[in-house]
Amino acid sequence: MKPPSLLDLTVEQQNVIALPFHGSHLITGVPGAGKTVTAIYRAWALATAGRDVALVTHSNLLHQYLAQMAPDLTEAVNVTTYHRWIRNFWRRQFGADPPQTDEDGWNYDWIEMQRDCILRRVRSSAHLVIDEGQNLPVAFYQLCRILGVGVTVCADENQRIGDDQSTVSEIRRALVVRTDPLVLRENRRNSREIAMLASEFHEETEGEIALPTRAGRTPTVLKVPSLEDLLAGVYRYFNAHPQRSIGIICRSTILLREIQSELTHIGLAKHTQAYVNDDRYRNTVDFSTRPIRIVSTASMKGLEFDSVFVPDLDGYTEDPTSVAARLDFFVLCTRAREDLYFAYRGLREPDILSSIPESLLHRHPD
Fold first, then answer.
1. Which residues have a Cβ under 8 Å from the Cβ of 284 and sit 6 or more positions away?
2. Which residues does 308 contact at the CB level (< 8 Å), separation at least 6?
3. Confidence (pTM)
């Protein structure tokens, strides 16, 4: 989980860190190009220069990952979530919670918030470095501009998951960024084989995606008789590769809990941790221990694992040609560094993968 040293960053990443410390800036790039690492170093550089800086992301799990990845770099940085930053800022300025449009408290009345800040002439000298910025709403960026907050945004609209999200062009307009986005082009995460499979689900039409040079094993789809058989395979894989991090990525919380229970039953409890959004342990994920991590597709953004297992391929029943389905699968594939396994239990391979050629996907019958 340790990030590369400053000297090991690419020239493109170095250019992001060296951007002016005033104003707003937009960075984009392919999955695995190091946007998260770049965001951490950018926040560190701003803090070293004495700026009031917060490193912000939408996901609570990614927030914990960022805080633990490089504690020496983020010691002087407020690593937080988007919701926490908004609420803390509003309470300091207005002595109350921000106005909301729902009872759950996750949706804000942006028009009222913008009006209050304009009428009271509220300003801020803070600088926000935002990772996975495509998952924040456009109205948040508009509020930042009203407040005079400097923002460095790392975003990739090909990795949008969820309803409240922004395109790169929308972020650029909201922050009035007059320069073109800086682009990180080199995928330093995935093996070439994983990147080739992921590119089958990529919707970008402008130019070709540069593939990594590092070779690895071809991703595999497994037909398994039961979940227990699959997890027995995970058990053997873990024993063969005890130093690797393993991500088991599920679509449902029910399955996530079932997998956690079964891994406990077969003796992997001390090596396993699960993240559930409403769980009382949701803020205590430790990325330095327990290398088997069970997460949902809703929480996988920004994370990476040496090896990824997808246990519920049967659950991907939506139209495989739809943009949303392809984007979800693109993000899913690019979480894996070395090995990628899909499993299904039905009579036939789900449509989402059935058209992928054998050269890109190894089929392993039961």
1. none
2. 246, 247, 248, 249, 332, 335, 336, 339, 340, 341
3. 0.92
